[in-house]
Amino acid sequence: MEKGKAKSAAAAVTDSLPKLDSVASSESSSDRRFASWLQPSGQLSKRSKPPSLVSLCVGVVGKHLEDIIADLEEIAITFPPDIKMALAAVARRRRLLDNNVIVPLADGSWEILDISGSNVTDVGLIKLAGICRSLRAVDISRCENITVAGVSGVLQHCHSLETLRCGGCPRSDYMARCCLGILKPKLRDVDGDSWEELDATEIIDGAHSLRWLVWPRIDKYTLEDFSAECPRIAVNPKPSPFTLRGAQVPREAWPDIILDEPFVKDIDPETWAVSGFRPRKISAPLSSPTSELSVAEKFRLAFLERDNRLAPKRAKNVRQHQRRAEKEFMAMDTRAKALALASKLGKSLQNRH
C-alpha cells in the first residue's frame, strides 16, 4: 500500500518536470528578448549621460564670457561657488583669465585655485589670496606676470596651503627658483655663534603648511639643495597608494592632474573652442623674445640668483669674522676687556631697575 503511494508520488513529480522546464525556458527566452532589446548589438550599451541644465547654462555663458566681463562683478554676486569656479575654468581655457575676470569670481570657500597659463598678475593674485584664505592647492605654472611678491602674498594669507604648482616656461621657472628662498626655514636673528644660543621663538618658517611642490623642470642640483635644506616639502611627488613621509600624496600634487578639471567635466568642450577664436599659445617658439630669454639675459638672471643666494652666507661670514676679531682684541687688551665687562654690568643693573 505504502509502496503504491510512493510510486504514484514519484510519477507525479516526474510528470511535473517537463512543465517546469517549459516555464523556465519561456522565462529565459523572455529575458533574452528583453536583454536583446536593451542591447541590440549583444554588447553593453554605453549611453552617455545627458548634460544637466546648469552645465548647459554655464556653457552658454562661457561662450559669451567676453561680452559680460565689464559687468561680471555685479553678475557673479548671485552665483554659487562651484559655478564661479566653472566660469573661471572656462575663462582660463579660452585665454581670457586675468585680474578683471578672476577677482570678481573669487569666493571665500574655494580650496583650489588654478590660474595656470593666465594673464593674472601679482596684484590679482594677492587680492585672490586675501579673499580665498582657505586655499589648499594653487597652480601658477606658466604665469609670466607673477613674481616672488605674488607668491609671498599667497603664503602670507593662505595658512592652509599644502600644494604649490609652478614652472612650465622660462620666466615661471626663474620665478620658482627665486621663490625657494621664501619656502625654506629662516631665522629671525642669526647673530649667535651656534644653534644652542638661539631661542625657539627665533626660528620661523617661510611656508608653514606647504608640503608638496610641483615643479617638473627643476634641475638636479637645485632639487638636491632644496631637499637638504627643507626636507619637509616633497618636490614632484609620484602618485602612490602608499604614504610618503607619513602623509599620503593628495590628488592636487600629482603632476598630470589639472586642478579645475572636475568643475568642467560635464561642460561641452565646444564652449572654449568657439568659432573664430584662436587661443594664444602659452609657450611661443624659441625665436620669440617674450617667452624665451636671450643668452645674455639668462646669464644676468643666473648671476643675480647666485648673488642673492650667497648674500646671507657672506653677511654671516662677515659677522663671524667681526665677532672673532672682537674676542681676540678683548683677550689681548685688558683695558678693552674691562670696558666690556663694565658695559655688561651696567646693562644688568639697568634691567634690574
UniProtKB/TrEMBL annotation:
Pfam families, per database record: LRR_6 (PF13516)
Organism whose genome encodes this protein: Eucalyptus globulus (Tasmanian blue gum)
Database matches in Gene3D superfamilies: Ribonuclease Inhibitor
Region (Disordered): 1-35
Name of protein: RNI-like superfamily protein
